[in-house]
Specification:
By secondary structure, this protein is an alpha/beta fold. The chain is 43% helix and 15% strand.
């Protein structure tokens, strides 16, 4: 699928940004604004299939997302950043994209959902119900955090949700949960930034195992999963040296 992309800025460092589930390229705006203020960056955002201004699709497999991304972004970028689902997509595309480095913000590498045994069979037997129950506590946290966003950021999120193909949600969760990334050295130099919510998408033992084979871990305490919206200044400061 040909993805919608937007490129802004004219700086020497060309960076790609890949959003999470239910978001789109515009929801990177708080971070993009801070990058462009420096004059150092050219920034390309993408809308994954079924998100933003990209088309809807008959299927939403992670490998399909990744192939779309490879076709949408230039190879050899200075860096590519993936958040949540965007991280799960980027890690499957990064060897083909070959940026100088990759940055993963709370990447969806290993969802904390049951996938085997009786618990796994029961959980995925009625995923609309079980995922809804599992998401209640997170929804309450998200609502509280969202209340701290400025009106412009809230509008970006609302617009993204209106364009989001919600049919993909269960399939994406299933795909990520049943196909976690293998612990192996990164295809390119890679930094993983973890929020207080990170265990839901990257359990601590897996994070430590990745660190042991060459991934760099950085932590951003006191913030939640959508860190680039909640604390864009802190995120930019933490990764500016590798962007």
């Amino acid at each position: 699928m040909q993805l919608h992309t937007t490129t802004t800025g004219d700086g020497e460092r060309h960076v790609g940004l890949v959003h999470g589930l239910g978001a789109d390229g515009e929801t990177w705006r708080p971070l993009v604004d801070r990058m462009l203020e420096t004059g150092r960056y050219t920034v390309t955002t993408v809308d994954l299939r079924g998100h933003g201004h990209s088309g809807r699709a008959a299927s939403y497999g992670l490998d399909e997302f990744a192939t779309d991304l490879v076709e949408a972004l230039p190879t050899g970028l200075h860096s590519v950043v993936g958040h949540s689902l965007g991280g799960a997509v980027l890690v499957r595309a990064v060897a083909r994209l070959q940026p100088l480095r990759a940055i993963y913000l709370d990447p969806g590498f290993h969802l904390a959902l049951p996938t085997s045994g009786l618990a796994g069979r029961l959980f995925w037997a009625v995923p609309p119900l079980t995922l809804a129950v599992a998401g209640l506590a997170q929804a309450r946290t998200t609502k509280a955090v969202r209340a701290s966003y400025d009106a412009a950021t809230v509008a970006l999120l609302d617009d993204a949700r209106e364009r989001f193909d919600t049919r993909m949600a269960i399939g994406v969760f299933r795909d990520v949960a049943h196909a976690p990334i293998e612990v192996a050295p990164p295809a390119v130099p890679s930094v993983v930034v973890l929020s207080d919510d990170s265990p839901a998408v990257l359990p601590e033992p897996v994070a430590r195992s990745l660190e042991g084979v060459g991934w760099e871990l950085r932590r951003l305490p006191g913030v939640h999963h959508d860190m680039h919206l909640e604390a864009p200044d802190r995120v930019f400061e933490l990764v500016a040296d590798v962007l």
